[in-house]
Amino acid sequence: MEFTFNAFYTLIAAVIVLLLGRFLVNKIDFLRRYNIPEPVAGGLVAATVSFAVHSIWGYSIIFSSELQTSFMLIFFASIGLSAHFAKLKEGGVGLIIFLICVASFIVVQDIVGISLATLLGIDPLIGLIAGSITLTGGHGTAGAWGEILETQHGIQGALALGMASATFGLIIGGIIGGPLAKLLINRHQLANAKTRAQIKDRDTHVDTHPDDLAPFENPHQVRLITADNAITTLGMFAACLAFADFMTGYSKGTWFELPTFVWALGGGVILRNVLESIFRVDIFDRAIDVFGNASLSLYLAMALLSLKLWQLVDLAGPLVIILAAQTLTMALYAAFVTFKVMGKNYDAAVLAAGHCGFGMGATPTAVANMQAITNMYGPSHKAFLIVPLCGAFFVDLINATVIQVILKFFV
Questions:
Q1: Against a cut of 0.85, is the pTM above it?
Q2: Which of 384, 392, 320, 394 lies closest to 361, judged by CA?
Q3: Residues with Cβ < 8 Å from 118, sequence gap 6 or more?
Q4: Which Pfam families match (predicted)?
């Protein structure tokens, strides 16, 4: 039996999950020590309870997908609205190197998936489903390509397999990033963990120099905003989402068709820089940060609330083997390639945590991973400049190109 929660009840449930996650991280030393993001901690408990209820009584809840999508789009719009071209130059060569590193991993991810699928005697395209289509691509890409693989390549159940693999990736991406970064930081003595008192003092200290922070850094720190700039910022978000909705419909079926969240991000970049450069409008970064961080937390909570863990139980044995191998590959690549290529310093460790997030799950997971690390060890401006733009925009374009090239060999 299924129960449907409307937007109001879905929002209430998401807030409860976030409060639960905050309580667990504060009370359970293991979660705090290994930097598990609060939405992941609370969301996994909720998903486990949902699984138990479904297994015992057969009940399940359908949450409002529209609200979840809206918060996701607001988060990506906030990335775009934070992308001041003058600041983006700070990413510089590091952004290019990280993009090359990420692009290389997408190829590795697909090679691992296809090779294992072939060795296990199943269709190689199933390995692609358990590769960058779902792990780097996430649920949105899984849905789009699942339909194509079913109709054009004859892979039965590709959509269901894709959604289950993306679900697995979302969970694992939020679990392995924090512990991996902590291991790297401690092994190489890159930073000292802050005490609870230091963290509390920082978070309660009013942010009077917002320009010192990169977008999404220190989400718990107090930021002063007024009703006027909050309303103005909400209007900017509305403009970004309206642009995304229009461009999604306008570009459908054309060569420049892109996912809605990419248009939301692009709209934010355009709006921010046109207002600042041409009309000399002051942009309220503090308000953008507040709404962006709130949307990120609520989106992750709703995504984990909507997980149907019983779908993972139904995964075939070979697919479980492939996904386990992908998890190990991601962790090893982040530790021995991403971390070393990016400089083997504190920023590189935070970037490795972010790479685990969108390499196995999604960009919001990557940002949450980095927030969990920087909350404990201190800021990483470089990581918060590079990862959101790379994970939200460039990765999807690179991933789509790689998938298209691979599929040409199976046509």
A1: no
A2: 392
A3: 124, 127
A4: Glt_symporter (PF03616)
Length of the chain: 411
Token pair recorded at residue 132: 């960058």
- Is the Cα torsion angle 350, 352, 354, 356 positive or negative in sign? negative
- All domains of the chain, ordered by start, with CATH? 2-408 (1.20.1530)
Query: What's the pLDDT score for residue 186?
Result: 93
Q: Residue 316: pLDDT above 90? A: no
Residue that is written with structure tokens 């960009």 in the block: 363
Is pLDDT of 236 > 80? Answer: yes
pLDDT in tens, 255-303: 787 778 778 888 998 999 999 989 988 888 889 989 988 998 898 888 8
149 touches 160 (CB < 8 A): no
- Provide the token pair at 9: 């009840």
User: How many Å separate Cα 96 from the centre of its chain?
Assistant: 20
Can you give the pLDDT at residue 220?
Answer: 66
Cα separation, 391 vs 294, in Å, equals 19
Q: Count CB-CB contacts under 10 A for residue 284.
A: 20
CB 393 within 8 A of CB 266: yes
351 close to 315: Cβ distance less than 8 angstroms = no
Q: Take residue 94 and report the two structure tokens written for it.
A: 């590091």
Terminal CA-to-CA distance of the chain, rounded, Å? 41
Contact 356, 177 (CB under 8 A): yes
Encoding tokens for residue 411?
């046509």
Quick one: which H or E segment has residue 177?
helix 158-187
pLDDT band at 329 (very low <50, low <70, confident <90, very high): very high
What mean pLDDT is reported for the chain?
86
- Beta carbons of 327 and 134 less than 8 angstroms apart: no
Task: Enumerate residues 6+ apart whose C-beta is below 8 A from 138.
Answer: 166, 169, 170, 361, 362
The encoded tokens of residue 133 equal 């289509």
Instruction: Say if residue 201 is exposed, middle or buried (CB neighbours under 10 Å; 0-12, 13-18, 19+).
Output: exposed
- Tell the residue number behind the tokens 């989402």, with chain if given: 241
CA distance 218 to 216: 6
Over residues 7-39, the pLDDT tens digits come to 999 999 999 999 999 999 989 988 887 778 888
Q: Which residues on neighbouring strands pair with residue 126, listed in sequence order? A: none
At 110-157, the pLDDT tens digits run 999 999 999 988 889 989 999 999 999 887 678 767 767 888 888 877
Residue 204, SS3? helix
